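Per reviewer request, we include the raw input and output of the structure prediction for the construct analysed in the revised manuscript.
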Amino acid sequence: MNIPIVYEDDWLLVVNKPAGLLSVPTPKKESRTLTSILNQDAVVRGLKYSLHPCHRLDRDTSGLVIYAKGKSIEKKMTDAFRDRRVAKKYIAFVHGKLAHPEGSINLAIEGKNALTEYKVIEEKSNYSVVEVHPVTGRTNQIRIHFKSIQHPLVGEDKFVFRKDFALRFKRVCLEAKELQFRHPATGKDLKFSIDLTQDLKDFLSGHD
């Protein structure tokens, strides 16, 4: 599978994960994941290191994922995520029109504090395009938070019943669009941003 590489140096690899692909295996122990594909490619290329994911995206979520070349760099990057030193920006399509053009959702997930900030960047007839900044990084945070304010993501079928909504999509409309952080080895400030994937662009053009 062709995984687009956004950035690579001696310590880090940043890729654009396609929707429909797990980042790492679940308890079901799937053999084909983004991590396994990248490490198999590293073996083919004769590389001496293993790639370690520094964070994860849901199966249905597309976008930027950082991999570390070695455990020591992985620890530095996971520490940066834990300490909120990585700025994350997502684009989400949510059902309906939000009452406020920007705001925050502060709702604990599994007993842990969780905070999501958002800004509406475009309103359509029956959905909104929203820029999302998850301040914390709980599992399924964005999906749970927008469901909690009665504006679930278009394509959501894990936390709501898809049949309850006239507007549908083959996956959840969520993309990890931008990452900004300080390089764990060089100290250089890095910022990566990608265009929306084609399926989300097609959805926008086909649903006014």
